[in-house]
Amino acid sequence: MTTLAHRDDDEAASDALGGFTWALARDVRLALRTPSELGVQLLFYVVVVTLFPLATSPDRAMLAALGPGVLWVAALLASLLSLPRLFALDQADGTLEQMALSPWPLPAIVSGKIAAHWLTTGLPVVLLSPLAALQYGLDAGAIGVLAAGLALGTPILSLLGAVGAALTLGVRASGALVALLVLPLYVPVLIFGAGAVDAFRAGMAFDANLSLLGAGLIAAALGAPFAAAAAVRIALD
Amino acid sequence: MLEAHDLAARRGTARLFAGLGLAVAAGEALVVTGANGRGKTTLLRMLAGLSLPEEGEIRLDGARVRPFSPALRAAVAFAGHALALKDELSARENLASLATLCGAHIVDAELDAALDRVALGERKHLPARSLSQGQRRRVGLARLSLSRPRVWILDEPVTALDASGAALLGELVGAHLERGGLAVASTHAPLALPAARVRTLSLDKGL
Known about the structure:
The complex is a heterodimer of chains A (237) and B (207).
Chain A: H1 9-33, H2 35-55, H3 60-82, H4 85-93, H5 95-101, H6 106-134, H7 140-167, H8 174-201, H9 207-236
Helix pairs in contact in A: 1-6, 2-3, 2-6, 3-6, 3-7, 3-8, 6-7, 6-9, 7-8, 7-9, 8-9
Chain B: E1 2-11, E2 14-24, E3 29-33, H1 40-48, E4 55-60, E5 63-65, H2 70-75, E6 76-79, H3 91-101, H4 108-117, H5 133-146, E7 151-155, H6 163-178, E8 182-186, E9 198-202
Parallel strand pairs in B: 3-8, 3-9, 6-7, 7-8
Antiparallel strand pairs in B: 1-2, 1-4, 4-5
Helix pairs in contact in B: 3-5, 4-5, 5-6
């Protein structure tokens, strides 16, 4: 019989790592078993990004000015699309209870799920963004800044989104509610992300924007898993 | 030793039970009976640490435990109505995933032996969505057979099981009690267990 009263820090760290890797591997594997869902999200991103040049004018200068904002908003929407399912499926089949009762710390398991969410929804968007940016006539430097911003910013979207998804567990029409809860929190990410590209194109320093995104990522990574785990426990009670 | 003192629960405005006390020692099983809506599941979820009692306290080996406390999570295996199976994964993958989540270090041979034991050996590579309700329950039995925690909390474990499945459940719980574990189960059908080890708590009386 093990007692957990006197565990040392090493043990706690390996517990946290165990929960993180378990959840990460499991969610990535589940996502790969249903590739159509991944495809739909990515297609959604591509279609939204493609609609804007069609709906506005083919003027290069205007498209280049519009581009960074549109690409960022599309990334936000693509990330939102899959958020309601992040915890709801696990709650429906009882896995969420087992996660909350696991000897591993729940925030570690939640972190693994968030990392898997980013790998399956955020990372593809980051990788596709240079291609999507070509439609807007952005030059190579601007595309680089855009992709760097998305690489720093999309994990923040997954982290903040997970808190919203956990808070709306068990609520009817949770999809719309998640969007209402989370979109205002996405605003700073949007401003700094799109702002970095605008600053680059205007020939100004853009590194402050990226540094702020990085700082936001660290703060979100330290806080969001705990908030989401607390919300999950409340939802189970 | 799992104890509860003066537990009370309500659902909405209706009081389910109040002043409920129980104690289950190592090697004992407590069977909770009662009509539908009496609060069997509510009581079991409180004992498992999934929900906070409205009043009263739960003690594990004399120490008071709160919902989701580490001591409770290390000691308890909970099997609820929902089986925590993923349709996309095979029976074997589901079992491996759940057993790991519940803190067991399982080698492949143990997984296969557990699945053979619940007569799922030939179907272990089929996705869980193609299993019948009773077969899904059997994956749950296999998980229990690999489970290390000493407190088993089983909510209606006999549901959807056939006679041999129910007998298997009795064997598993019996072996668990032999090892010095304890179990709390809500059930309508009697469990095939040595009568000396089983006590019954009815939620129908005293309200």
